[in-house]
Design a protein that fits this description.
Layout (H helix, E strand, L loop, with lengths): L9 E4 L4 E5 L2 H21 L11 H14 L4 E4 H10 L5 H12 L4 E3 L6 H4 L8
Antiparallel strand pairs: 1-2, 1-3, 2-4
Helix pairs in contact: 1-2, 3-4
């Protein structure tokens, strides 16, 4: 099997199963932060956090942290680690491996980890600490 290089270095995985590739780690973190902010805004519309000053940065960070803890987990993985693990797997066929790897290698890496069969793979890989 030839060694190939991914267009992206990091895979940011949200708790809803959506995952997206990024070249820079900071871009992946920003993607996750936007996800939390969207959750924060939708929760704010329900007046759950009415006692907080939403314009105060510390309040926003605290609430986003709580939302992150409540939403299972979000993670960032090195795409190279995922590809290496897939290549070493003995269970999947070569075609299955290549299909998953090709999704990870694409420049516009947007995948659903459940539909792509990545959920069980990611459970065996250590994420990068956010």
């Amino acid at each position: 099997m030839d060694y190939v290089v991914s267009e992206n270095n990091y895979l940011a995985v949200l708790s809803n199963g959506k995952a997206r590739g990024f070249v820079e780690y900071e871009e992946a973190k920003a993607y996750i932060n936007r996800y939390f902010m969207e959750n924060l805004n939708s929760q704010g519309k329900k007046n759950i956090y009415a006692d907080y000053d939403m314009y105060e940065e510390k309040s926003t960070e605290d609430i986003a942290f709580v939302l992150g803890a409540e939403n299972d987990e979000v993670s960032i993985y090195m795409i190279e680690d995922i590809i290496d693990y897939i290549r070493e797997m003995e269970i999947a066929t070569i075609d299955e491996k290549e299909e998953i790897i090709s999704k990870l290698l694409s420049k516009e890496c947007n995948v659903d980890i459940y539909a792509a069969g990545l959920k069980s793979i990611l459970e065996n890989i250590n994420p990068i600490l956010i």
